[in-house]
User: Which sequence fits this backbone?
């Protein structure tokens, strides 16, 4: 259910029918109205001919489907790119940063880290200098902060722990049609 | 509570340069005290804070008056007020406190109201198998619950 | 009357086309009208009208709903005005009007009472804004508290006065030893 969506919105100018005339053959009329909802604002034969419009609609539907499938992964990918770019500005490497965060049990994901880097730059900077200090104490080589913006970090690497186990994601859920049948129960297992 | 959780996790803007020629004894405990006092003073001045909360399988950076749209028809009615308890971080203009992984829910309060429950815009699932006379057009729509963040308050720091 | 009935479709279509950004898809940011929920929450639904027929089979669900559940829902939501309007031989509809002036109408023909209950719940919990594709699942009153990042946020102030190119400001920073540095160290040894 949609609230006041624009129903039957279609182009009239330069399209293939007369605006002030009810077209005969209502069955075909209805189908083409639906088609034109998607192709009314396309160019040339994709708008004016039925065959071209169907071809264009097929493409549009493929693009919409691809967009829907890729949306979640794209968001994560963009977030990762943003975080690594922000880290590059502070002379830090993405892998070192993430490993220190996971060892110190700070479980911020890339999406909010990217938001921090953009909208709350000082918080992000403090997190980076914290990670840098710990990385240095862990024996990784890091480039020290610019003295002008450096934070006075008092931290000891005794706070580091084993990283928490990562949640397992089953993107497709449990398989419904088992290719390998489940083992039969033994009598004592009933 | 927070004091023990955040031990050693805060940082402070350098007042004196780090690379001094004289060796110094840095009293970490004293610095921590100073920082915590400064933070509680900052917090009590009722300035705007932001928090990172975990709701609905996702982390959100929220502040007063934000809207967030959660997936699914959650067991809440419109107008219900809820408290978001999984807070990963709080921050303000001059400070930020990170939880490991969570902050104490008594010291940070994030309150929200359910302002709308509606459906999402239909997304297309489209399967077209060439030469098979198969075209599946499936417009998929989900339910959504919209929250308004009423306040982000930190205390007892 | 002319042989071919003349239908003017242009006017509604061009009115609608004003809101058109691209041909087949709209998107918007997450919004709630009237700053609802900032101080307190008020229901945005103002008026619901049930139109139904007293006899026809199509509106049996609406009739059952009105008999059994409508009063209860009315008591729960005292701020909403509810009309039940019998009209002979009409298609049963439920029309909701919201605080932002929009209205939404559901065709309840041949719907069962449970379906109608679901739809009415949806009508009561909507804010009145149209459903569109969201640009982002979050929207903020104040996007940034510490001040948004700009390209000069973390830029050294020494850049203000130095003449560029400057050797100190343009050295490549790396934690790995370069081949040159390695050879220089070897030479020094």
Assistant:
């Amino acid at each position: 259910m949609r609230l006041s969506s624009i129903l039957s919105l279609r182009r009239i100018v330069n399209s293939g029918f007369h605006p002030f005339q009810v077209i005969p053959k209502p069955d075909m009329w209805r189908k083409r109205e639906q088609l034109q909802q998607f192709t009314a604002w396309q160019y040339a034969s994709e708008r004016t001919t039925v065959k071209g419009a169907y071809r264009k609609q097929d493409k549009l539907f493929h693009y919409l489907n691809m967009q829907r499938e890729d949306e979640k992964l794209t968001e994560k990918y963009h977030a990762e790119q943003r975080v690594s770019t922000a880290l590059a500005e502070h002379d830090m490497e993405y892998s070192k940063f993430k490993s220190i965060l996971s060892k110190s049990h700070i479980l911020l994901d890339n999406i909010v880290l990217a938001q921090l880097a953009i909208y709350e730059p000082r918080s992000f900077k403090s997190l980076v200098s914290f990670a840098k200090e710990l990385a240095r104490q862990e024996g990784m080589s890091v480039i020290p902060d610019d003295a002008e913006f450096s934070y006075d970090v008092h931290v000891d690497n005794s706070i580091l722990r084993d990283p928490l186990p990562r949640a397992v994601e089953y993107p497709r859920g449990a398989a419904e049609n088992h290719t390998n049948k489940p083992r039969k129960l033994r009598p004592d297992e009933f | 509570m927070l004091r023990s959780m955040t031990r050693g996790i805060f940082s402070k803007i350098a007042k004196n340069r780090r690379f001094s020629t004289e060796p110094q004894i840095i009293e970490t405990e004293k610095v921590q005290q100073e920082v915590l006092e400064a933070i509680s003073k900052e917090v009590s001045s009722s300035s705007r804070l932001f928090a990172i909360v975990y709701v609905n399988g996702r982390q959100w950076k929220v502040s007063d008056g934000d809207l967030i749209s959660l997936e699914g028809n959650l067991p809440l009615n419109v107008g219900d007020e809820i408290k978001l308890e999984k807070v990963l971080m709080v921050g303000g203009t001059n400070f930020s406190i990170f939880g490991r992984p969570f902050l104490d829910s008594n010291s940070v309060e994030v309150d929200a109201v359910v302002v709308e429950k509606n459906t999402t815009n239909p997304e297309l699932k489209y399967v077209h198998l060439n030469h098979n006379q198969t075209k599946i057009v499936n417009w998929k729509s989900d339910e959504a619950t919209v929250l308004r963040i009423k306040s982000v308050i930190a205390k007892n720091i | 009357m002319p042989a071919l009935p003349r239908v003017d479709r242009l006017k509604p279509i061009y009115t609608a086309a004003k809101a058109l950004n691209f041909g087949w898809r709209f998107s918007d940011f997450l919004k709630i009208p009237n700053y609802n929920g900032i101080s307190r929450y008020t229901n945005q639904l103002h008026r619901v009208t049930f139109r139904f027929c007293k006899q026809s089979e199509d509106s049996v669900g609406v009739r059952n709903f009105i008999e059994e559940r409508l009063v209860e829902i009315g008591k729960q939501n005292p701020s909403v005005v509810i009309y039940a309007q019998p009209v002979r031989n009409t298609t049963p509809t439920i029309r909701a009007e919201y605080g932002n002036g929009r209205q939404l109408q559901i065709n309840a023909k041949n719907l069962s009472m449970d379906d109608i209950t679901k739809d009415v719940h949806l009508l009561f919990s909507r804010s009145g804004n149209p459903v569109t594709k969201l640009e982002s699942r979050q929207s903020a009153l104040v996007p940034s508290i510490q001040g948004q990042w700009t390209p000069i946020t973390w830029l050294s102030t020494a850049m203000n006065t130095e003449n560029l190119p400057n050797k100190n400001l343009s050295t490549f920073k790396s934690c790995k030893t370069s081949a040159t540095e390695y050879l220089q160290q070897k030479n020094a040894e």
Summary: Helices of chain C lie at 10-17, 60-68, 70-76, 113-125, 179-188. The CA atoms of residues 131 and 171 of chain C lie 53 Å apart.
